[in-house]
Amino acid sequence: MTTDNSDDASTVHGSEDPQTDEQYHLEVTEGDVAEGVLLPGNPERVAKITDCWDDHDVVADHREYRTATGTYDETPISVTSTGIGAPSSAIAVEELARVGADTLIRVGSCGAIQEETDVGDLIITSGAVRQEGTSKEYVREEYPAVADHAVVAALAAAADELGYDYHVGLTASTDSFYAGQSREGFQGFLARDADDKIEELREAGVLNFEMEASAILTLAQIYGLRAGAVCTVYADRTTGEFQVTGESKAAKTASKAVSLLAEMDDRVDEAGADAWHAMLGL
Ligand SMILES: O=P(O)(O)O[C@H]1O[C@H](CO)[C@@H](O)[C@H]1O
Ligand SMILES: O=c1cc[nH]c(=O)[nH]1
Fold first, then answer.
1. Residues with catalytic function
2. What ipTM is given for this predicted complex?
């Protein structure tokens, strides 16, 4: 008996050299992406991000993963959409790391749960509650999802320079937009402890809900990569207001942060760690 495997053969992605092979989900290879990569959830946000760059090319577009590479303020930079949620974001981190990315910044939207945060504000994540399952496949629940301190500082410096209102603090990353974020489901369904859950996070000082940051930060920490997150507030969970607004603020802030980090890295290469600390005001 003969078997026709021609279709299979054309879609095999080799695993002998995972660094340089085309990656199975993202369809990127080494050289396609810069060291600094922005990670929006929504593929449609890729174009909104590249709008503020000097130039760019779309280098891959497969499933939820759209990747573009270009320059911002003369700094090489890439963007890859992750799709919604931790499982697909973890795949993006895995495959981007394999092709040479070392700095990952999520550029997202979120729901804010504190009174002082308004729709359109930016929230820069310093650490994230791991209310998702993916990062638990990698490491025990007690392991912290922390943002890289230089990435947080660069995002805050960028938002300052651009004149945007921002808050720095803790994010809760969930596996569910509805039940996981204490929203009503279909026909008014309310998950067990929904009200208590949002109140507990609020009282513990958590600023916002979104769905990817904790997995990205956890994997980055395990792999020795730098990561952070900046999200625009779409939902104000204290007033009930919801508006899709301010996407370009997070895009510009994260792009500028990548160029500030590259500048810091160059200075460290030239003058040692003291210069880096001086730039951060430490
Ligand atoms: O706007 P993005 O980056 O997709 O982020 C947020 O929006 C989606 C839910 O609507 C989730 O991915 C959440 O994290
Ligand atoms: O409330 C919100 C808004 C955007 N994304 C989320 O995950 N939650």
1. 25, 95, 183, 237
2. 0.99
